[in-house]
Design brief:
about 250 residues, alpha/beta, eight-stranded parallel barrel, about 30% strand, histidine biosynthesis
């Protein structure tokens, strides 16, 4: 059995780590390079670095910041935000990223998933899906959750897997920043219907929420931001707790 992964997420805007609630009301959470180094030293299994305004502002991910973060960490590192071409990914991987995350660009041009998978391997391609439950249906949203589409979460997830995505990062917009727990029912359905790893995102508030998403949500990894950024949960203590709960984690 594969170990479950704990993944701190660094949402970046204007070179700073930020965190909000339901994708809104962002507040400063610190220097991304310093945070990345601390998390790597404290037992994080991976990091996710998302330039959350890159797509909205029509600019590319800050490759220099990626380079600085990558110099400080020795764990796998995923980068996303404003990625729309093979060339973009080439720059980020050369800057030190291990994987890339695409979201809006994949919806607008699904062939991008095929192209990236063919060029760099599916293990490098994470498709992020931000979805909101509206009248019992999970609707995919774009541009940092601002633009609803007509796509259903589960249909889109199946398509991206067929196109070569190696992993899906599913963020529940309903749960994001609420600290009420992950969207475990939707996560379990994704896990049952797909054959690639699912990263749970949105809603972590305490250590039990992590245990629940691994057990009930069948997630392969759990991503969180504010509980780590604001020192509400320490990764070593979280891993100790999960181990006692019977969840296999890397110590």
């Amino acid at each position: 059995m594969l170990t479950k992964r704990i993944v701190p997420c660094l949402d970046i805007k204007n070179g700073r780590t930020v965190k909000g609630v339901n994708f809104l009301d962002l507040r400063d959470a610190g220097d991304p390079v310093e945070l990345a180094q601390i998390y790597a030293e404290n037992g994080a299994d991976e990091l996710v670095f998302l330039d959350i305004s890159a797509t909205e502002e029509k600019r590319k991910t800050l490759a220099n910041l990626v380079l600085h973060v990558a110099e400080k960490v020795n764990i796998p590192f995923t980068v996303g935000g404003g990625i729309s071409s093979v060339e973009d990914v080439d720059i980020l991987l050369q800057s030190g990223a291990d994987k890339v995350s695409i979201n809006s660009s994949a919806v607008k041009r699904p062939d991008l998933i095929n192209e990236l998978s063919a060029k760099f391997g599916s293990q490098c391609v994470v498709v992020a899906i931000d979805a909101k439950q509206v009248d019992d249906e999970w609707i995919v949203h774009l541009v940092g959750g601002k633009v609803p589409t007509k796509l259903n979460l589960f249909d889109w997830a199946k398509e991206v897997e067929k196109r070569g995505a190696g992993e899906i990062l599913f963020t529940s917009m309903n749960n994001d920043g609420t600290k009420n727990g992950f969207a475990n029912e939707a996560l379990a359905k994704l896990s049952n219907e797909l054959n690639i790893p699912i990263i749970a995102s949105g809603g972590a508030g305490n250590m039990q929420h992590f245990a629940d998403t691994f057990k009930e949500g069948k997630a392969d990894a759990a991503l969180a931001a504010s509980v780590f950024h604001f020192k509400e949960i320490a990764i070593p203590e979280l891993k100790s707790f999960l181990s006692k709960e019977g969840v296999l984690v890397r110590r």
